[in-house]
Amino acid sequence: MPLAQVNDIKLHYEIEGDGPPLLLVTGTGYPGVTWQTGVSEAFANEGFTIITYDHRGVGQSDKPDVAYSTRMFAGDAIGLLDTLGIDQCHVLGHSMGGRVTQWMALDHPKRVKSMVLAASGPGEFDPNFKVTRGIPLQAAEAMIIKGYEKFIRENIAGPFLFTAGFARNNPGVVQKLADAFWDNHPPLKFYLRHVIARQQHQTAERLGEIQTPTLIIVGDDDKTTGGTGNHLRQSEYLAKQIPNTELVVIPGVAHGFFWEKPEETNRAIIKFLRKHN
Amino acid sequence: MPYADVNNTRLYYEIHGEGTPFLILNGLGGNHLEWTTYQLPAWSREYQVILYDHRGTGLSDKPDEAYTTRSLAADAVGLLDAIGISEPVHVLGPSHGGRIAQWVALDYPERVRSLVLSATGPGQIDPSFEPTRGIPAHVVEAMVEKGYERYMREHLGGDFFYSKEFLKKHPDAVSKQVDLYFKHPTPLRNYLRHVIARQTHQTLDLLPNIKSPTLVIVGEHDTATIATGNHVATSKVLAERIPDAELVLIKGAAHSFFQEAPEQTNKVVLDFLRRH
């Protein structure tokens, strides 16, 4: 199990494939292994070197007992690239991972060749939707009532991630992702720190500074009003504010389009990456 | 049972005694019963004590909507309107209730005769410690691990509320007080909504505008830096910035000094009220 020494901690990472490097950044509390459910393999088969890793607090990476932020996670990702001797690479971040990716482009623009912001957001941007900077009420309540594992498994199987028909007809896909998460889940304390990092993410005012070629990709059904709001609207805002951007909206999917419509998703992403190789 | 219609919500209230009205604002999730053992007999001998349950708590209605300390202050004044009290009243609030009381004094100064802010604070006071502006992670963590009821029992009967010495000497008094919460328990969701109201409270810059005579009272051991920070530090800031304020530190007590040292604290409060 490869570990990299990064910013005084050890991060667990995995490498597969060959070709230009593509770093995959997971969402809130997700271990890197959740990419090894077909997603990383599909990109590797297209001729990329795929790097996946566990954020601090998750899986087999160290879990320092401090407050976390998306900017800190971005520093970790850059540190990982340093350790691996990678000057520049493509970066793809899903959900909170997309928020981390924004900070990589803001703080280390030369290191990011192009970026894919999948179902991500900029923090608060709509005066009519205040983003709580704590644990969102519904999530807190559900977790307290159900317990941590049941909350995670139902969240992964639920309408936030998958459309109802898909989850019903493809229980194996849902189960595989849920097991990949739970087998390497962050301890509750660190999961909650990831949630806080996501809720406190704020780049809305700085998106105009980003010069990195950017693909914004989102499902047209990613409309659940979660802690950060509706990801379709957040993605549309990102596409409007980041100068060098393409927006791809995948029809008929919610937050989990990597697993619900992998071929269509990968096609759009590979096409974009090839353009910026 | 007396209810008043206030801002489209039915609030439960009780009136005890006669004299100048004295409005009590409960702490987080608590209900009117928490005053009945140690304070009500002494206070209602001299004042018309008004106890009530905030929306979302105790016996009041529990609308599923966001609360703020400022909207809860509007409820407090709406209650006075509904029960026909127009003369200025003494207002006392512990902790969350004290944050609401600050907004009563800021938004409705003509309704306040004097203000007692007990074990409370004005939001962020220290640039290096920003309270989580929402439900703090450690609260959720403990509630997920213990469940709501056990969390509340351990929290209300633990060393945040009481000094270690009191917990050792008076376990029965503590558990009786905790039981009062569970006579009319606040549902989890409404409790969390009140937590958000507390965590997003911010009046630091407005404190000089509070013109009411103010008693700031805090237990010397109320120094845990969780959720909203150390209440001794926040109480000192309240006393420094509110123009007409005096500070009383209760030796040996923590957050629940009204239960730990009832005779002493009743005397401090009544001496202050009599002067105003």
Structure description:
The complex is a heterodimer of chains A (277) and B (276). With 277 residues, chain A is of the alpha/beta class. Chain A has helices spanning 39-45, 70-83, 96-107, 137-146, 148-157, 164-169, 171-182, 188-200, 231-241, 257-260, 262-275; strands at 3-6, 9-17, 21-25, 49-53, 89-94, 112-118, 214-219, 245-250. Chain B is α/β, with parallel strands linked by helices. Helices cover 39% and strands 17% of the residues of chain B. Chain B contains 11 helices and 8 strands. In chain B, strand 7 (214-219), helix 9 (231-241) and strand 8 form a beta-alpha-beta unit. The mean pLDDT of chain B is 97. Chain A binds chain B through residues 132-137, 140-141, 143-145, 147-148, 188-189, 192-193, 195-196, 199, and chain B through 132-137, 139-141, 143-145, 147-148, 188-189, 192-193, 196, 199.
Secondary structure blueprint with pairings:
The complex is a heterodimer of chains A (277) and B (276).
Chain A: E1 3-6, E2 9-17, E3 21-25, H1 39-45, E4 49-53, H2 70-83, E5 89-94, H3 96-107, E6 112-118, H4 137-146, H5 148-157, H6 164-169, H7 171-182, H8 188-200, E7 214-219, H9 231-241, E8 245-250, H10 257-260, H11 262-275
Parallel strand pairs in A: 3-4, 3-5, 5-6, 6-7, 7-8
Antiparallel strand pairs in A: 1-2, 2-4
Helix pairs in contact in A: 2-3, 4-5, 5-7
Chain B: E1 3-6, E2 9-16, E3 21-24, H1 40-43, E4 48-52, H2 69-82, E5 89-94, H3 96-107, E6 112-118, H4 137-146, H5 148-156, H6 164-169, H7 171-183, H8 188-199, E7 214-219, H9 231-241, E8 245-250, H10 257-260, H11 262-275
Parallel strand pairs in B: 3-4, 3-5, 5-6, 6-7, 7-8
Antiparallel strand pairs in B: 1-2, 2-4
Helix pairs in contact in B: 2-3, 4-5
Features:
heterodimer; A: 277 residues; Rossmann fold; 11 helices; 17% strand; B: alpha/beta; 8 strands; globular
What does this entry show, briefly?
The complex is a heterodimer of chains A (277) and B (276). By secondary structure, chain A is of the alpha/beta class.
